[in-house]
TrEMBL record, chains A, B:
Residues 234-386 form the Peptidase M20 dimerisation domain. The keyword Repressor does not apply. The lineage of its organism: Bacteria, Pseudomonadati, Bacteroidota, Cytophagia, Cytophagales. Keywords: Hydrolase, Metal-binding, Protease, Signal. InterPro entries: Cyt/Met_Dipeptidase (IPR051458), Peptidase_M20 (IPR002933), Peptidase_M20_dimer (IPR011650). This is M20/M25/M40 family metallo-hydrolase. Residues 1-18 form the signal peptide.
Length: 505, 505
């Protein structure tokens, strides 16, 4: 850890408290510790972190223990039955409240050959040429030059090691100036988020007391696509269904049995068609029940600087489903999506048959108001109302012969949604923190459309939880050539500084 | 060719004319020539006949020329631009009318490893054991013993070399007794039926005069499943459509864009659902127009000894599509069948996306009354009435952005149906022939459900055409372990004898 060689200006007056640092103070402090921040980032992304390889995770665990332990955090490994969770704690003197920070250390698997660099775990610095290509430049240039649009390319640079390095940098900046938060800090480090954190919800139940806090801040995920400072108050949950319909027990010649043997693809098409109106709105009664959006919340949704025309242009769609009238509104509701559908063969492999089965894969994205069990019940009732007998297995002959229409329904609730009220105390605190850091109101996302494995954790802990995303949305998360924009990394350090210097009593 | 060593009883009286041969005469004559028939069958199936290999077809062509030329037929090779058609002709003294016989010489490709014998082109004799397995027995046993349920296994034993051997055997039986038909005989031998006879319709136009006849008898295909003597008066035609619907230009994350980006699988499901009612009856107006079945024809349909319960039991279906109320009635109408359907992935490969496209493969089986162009027009009008803009190509961005729902429609008319009226002169003649041969009325199939490549030939020639099938329905046609039941082969010889000895003036 590099020692500061000079005292920042704002410390000339010893009476200044951490909690009164202004935007320019935070900027100056970030600037002073920029090189240290870059060092930390390059160091942490150099440790391979595919959770499929236990030895890689072990190395990351050791690094985290060194880093947080070295900064005076007390460490506890929480047993999960699988890879451990690492809990790091630092109590504030006279700290009354506690904030729990969430980061994950593992990264998506890499397919080296698809990366435009030798090794996804050796970070490289790149700039965009006038032709729009990313070209490597000497890493050393970052020691003396700064361009916010340069990027560091490495696995987990954005998801989610970048935020860890931001946090550590901010912590060091404060420490070296003898400043510290006025609240207790707990940090939970997840080592298998990219595996869906399968053991996390159960671990919360086991270790609930140790994890308990007044607020949780999730340091993961990208900012709004506008790249403006962002707070995200929730995420949709996800559940899935697989529907299988049945025709003749084996495929039949379509000449001999076309318009005689019932066709399972038609049955499935008719069932699916009955679930939505032609404008894409779910027509199953009750599906959208319980969702009320206040005028204040609508104002928040409408304030998100989405480029609706831009989205439609990028997706090449002339209209949107009749659920919301704009993007943010749309994702406040549960979805019913056909993610896959199949019966027999298409294209060159197609055969003149009456297929024996047809399958639809459905995903139902959940919002806070939509209990997945209630939605499943509505869907099942609807299926039965269409004349189907629902089974949980492939029908045996007796069932095929007995019932006019049978369907196999397999269902899975992956995880529920979470959402913290925007007008909560936590929301107000975070807005204040962001306004201090950036001099303007953040983009506030009431819920993100996608689902995150942190949801069950939030749910089980049942405390206000808000995501403070920092990285650029075009970071190639989960893909080859993941990167972090230097401007985002720098803003992220400032964000962490602002969080740690915001009074919470 | 084995010479007869004795004169059959019925020739003791020299005044007996061929045309007055009774059932028992035909039986005796068949019996007398049984060994010769077996020799011919074993010889013809020993010549490999996959039309994908020109040299194999050449060998078959040479064999056919030898056989028919050696029996006094005049031979003409009709150029098709591909594999030739062989026309063999024998005029009758004072023959007034002409019957054109159709056979095909080529066979389906073989996958040797899937056959339960060393070589599909070395015939073997088998009997069914009490456990239901087919076990090889010494071929020599067929020289002294006869069991109608024994079978000869070889490619093309049923489809369609068996019928050629039956015909040649019958011809020889007559010749050796100085008998001959009182009508002119033309025989057309097709060498690429299993390839769909792509050049046949055009060849008919070119060689129409040479092929012209008063009636055509198609010696191909299996008897009714009851294995009763059968006449088949037509076959459904077939046309196909591929429908593709479009969502976002590339698949989108279903969390971010589920219930925002229109889902192409739902669009497709809704379109398909609109084409049929829930009982499987096409609901597109006009689809079944023009089909009228007289009371007499209904009586014929009802007389077919189908085991409706048996079919449903075998297919494991509890109901049938609401087109006909029983099998024979069902296939008198055109079908609209989804033979394949796909959007994105199902099963283990499924992903949480909004797919970008969905595809349905449709086949429309045609009957005589249904002009495929008229049906296509009805379907297209229906699709447009559902709000789709029909394209013949994948939409470009401008089309995606301009139209609410676009669909790509690709269509192909493979071939039209054919059907000869049951109450035609040809029908009466063939019924008489069958009754004389078997002492009972044949099963009469008004139309078969499947489609046969002979249809365009029949259509182009525009003469009454009836199929006289002889082989067992469970012959494993097109599959490994193709076979012919000895009883069917024997009945087939008798059928050929009856045809050739039925007066046609």
């Amino acid at each position: 850890m590099k020692k500061l060689l000079y005292l920042p200006l704002f410390l000339i007056s010893q009476v200044i408290m951490a909690q009164s640092l202004s935007k320019s103070d935070l900027e100056a402090m970030t600037s002073d510790h920029w090189q240290h921040g870059l060092d930390l980032l390059r160091e942490i992304v150099s440790i391979p972190n595919d959770a499929a390889y236990k030895e890689q995770i072990t190395e990351n665990l050791i690094w985290c223990k060194d880093q947080f332990g070295g900064r005076g955090f007390s460490l506890t490994e929480l047993e999960t039955g699988g890879l451990p969770l690492l809990l790091a704690e630092r109590k504030a003197e006279n700290g009354e409240k506690t904030i729990l920070f969430y980061f994950h250390v593992d990264g998506q698997a890499v397919e080296k050959s698809k990366w435009n660099q030798e090794d996804p775990f050796i970070p490289v610095l790149k700039e965009k040429t006038s032709s729009g290509e990313w070209t490597e430049i000497q890493m050393e240039r970052a020691n003396t030059e700064y361009d916010p649009d340069w990027r560091i390319f490495a696995r987990s640079s954005s998801d989610d090691k970048g935020p860890i390095a931001m946090f550590l940098t901010a912590w060091d900046a404060l420490s070296e100036n003898n400043l510290s938060p006025d609240f207790n800090v707990k940090i939970i480090l997840d080592f298998e988020e990219e595996q869906g954190s399968p053991l996390l919800p159960e671990a919360v139940k086991t270790h609930r007391d140790k994890l308990m806090a007044d607020m949780m801040i999730i340091m993961d995920g990208p900012r709004h696509i506008s790249n403006e400072p962002t707070l995200t108050f929730g995420a949709r949950g996800i559940s899935t269904m697989t529907l299988t319909t049945y025709g003749p027990v084996v495929p039949q010649h379509s000449g001999h049995f076309g318009n005689y043997a019932p066709n399972p693809a038609f049955m499935l098409a008719q069932l699916l068609a009955s679930m939505k109106n032609e404008n894409g709105r779910v027509s199953i009664p009750g599906f959208y029940d319980g969702i009320e959006i206040s005028d204040e919340e609508r104002a928040v949704l409408a304030a998100v600087p989405d480029d609706e025309d831009g989205i439609r242009d990028r997706l090449q769609i002339s209209r949107i489903d009749d659920v919301g009238s704009y993007y943010q509104e749309s994702i406040q509701y549960p979805s019913l999506n056909i993610r896959g559908m199949n019966s027999a063969w298409v294209g060159k492999e197609s055969r003149t048959i009456v297929p024996s089965t047809a399958v639809a894969e459905i995903d139902v994205r959940l919002v806070k108001e939509s209990d997945p069990n209630r939605l499943f019940k509505l869907i099942e009732d609807h299926i039965q109302n269409q004349g189907f007998t629902i089974l949980d297995h492939d029908p045996i002959k007796e069932e095929r012969m007995k019932f006019e229409k049978v369907i196999k329904l397999e269902k899975n609730i992956a995880y529920q949604a979470f959402r913290t009220p925007i007008d909560s105390e936590a929301g107000a605190w975070l807005r204040g923190m962001m306004e201090r850091a950036f001099g303007k109101a953040p983009v506030q996302i009431r819920t993100s459309g996608g689902s995150v494995p942190i949801s069950p954790f939030v749910d089980a802990l049942d405390i206000p939880a808000v995501t403070v995303p920092t990285v650029n949305a075009d970071n190639n998360q989960h893909s080859p050539n993941e990167n972090i924009r230097l401007g985002n990394y720098r803003d992220g350090i400032r964000t962490a500084l602002s969080i740690l210097t915001q009074s919470y009593k």
